[in-house]
Design a protein that fits this description.
mainly beta; Glutamyl_endopeptidase; nine-stranded mixed beta sheet; Thrombin, subunit H; 40% strand; 253 residues; six-stranded antiparallel barrel; 11% helix; globular; Trypsin-like peptidase domain-containing protein
Length: 253
Amino acid sequence: MKIDNLQFENLFKPIPGNNPTRVANDKIRTSPFHYVGLLVVTFPNSTLEYIGTATIIGKSKEDKESLYLLTCAHNLYSKNNGGKAVKVKFIRACNFPELPFPEVEAESWYYPDRYEKVDIPNDVPLRFLAENLIQENIDLDYGIVKLKETVRCDASLPTIEVKTDEELSNKKVQINGYGWFNEAMSHAKGELTGIQPQSLLYPISTAKGASGSAIMDQTSLDIFGVHTRETDENFNRGVRITEDVKKQILEWM
């Protein structure tokens, strides 16, 4: 199934020495890829569908089923497109044209109340904005999607985890999502090279469509952050899972 009228800007952020690989069809049903999916979103001012990435998460490491997806706020709210999304659906483990799981519609979606005031229009280059405005946007750019149907897995689900600066320094992480190969899943990995109080920096290549991807440990299902946007330098950045962020996410779940 091809998503009709897909609005996709092929804006790459290549990092020297780091190119994502396409996830093979025989791997798409395995961990961690089968927890990841394509988020398809419609906004008030358009019938076009926009893509992003979301990850199934549990409240605890014992959970094997969930109604909830972790993503970024700018997948769910767009100042350019009329505000809060009016329709959201999730295609788990989408690896177009391979679609191993049925599409699931979302019931509701949440992001921080203050995010709407700091949303950056998608036609404004970051180099034209003050660093403090960019940072405030990144700090609040996370969200949760609640599905209409429970997603069940054979093993424990990924969970959001709060780690110290020392634990995160040079941590080996992975980002699995969309955009680099359009609606087929990409896999990229690298190290966290910048640990800030509310955000993470990493030299991992992404493209539009990867927004909302979990910043996940390479050897476990621990999630340390949410990928949000590129920068004008050789690293990308995302929201760090802090105690406050975790508390808010769990309140939505």
